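Why does residue order matter? Because the sequence determines the fold. Keep that principle in mind as you read this record.
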Amino acid sequence: MIVLRRSAFRALFFWIALAILPASAEDFTKGAAVIETVSGEARRFAMEYAITVGEREQGLMGRKLLGPDEGMIFDFGATQSAVMWMKNTILSLDMLFVNEKGEVVGVAERTQPYSEDIIPSPGPVRYVIEINGGRAQALGITPGSRVVQGLRPPS
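Structure:
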């Protein structure tokens, strides 16, 4: 009888643990995005999409690796002032603040891992795109650049 109780307890523990574990890379919808720089160069990325409240809360927290041409698009569903932070985020990131039209209106470069400091958008935005810290500067992505493909996940 004791063995059966232990087995039931273990099963319950693992079921609860799986329910509260953070989302992994496999849980996000994936697609491709193209950002056109002010000078007209097309920068291609493999993106993951954070659409739901839970996905946006999870974001890239706990992620140990992000390829040089990978990132995540946070879609807030409507234009609003957005605030981000780096709590439980291991990687330094660049955050691209993007309006409804796909224009990059601001860039927060090389954000500090694990910081709980608030990173506000420079005004109302619909999207925030996170890429590896330093990539925006390296690729020439600045305010005025445009996301010309992939703001929304593939259907």
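The first helix runs from residue 2 to 20.
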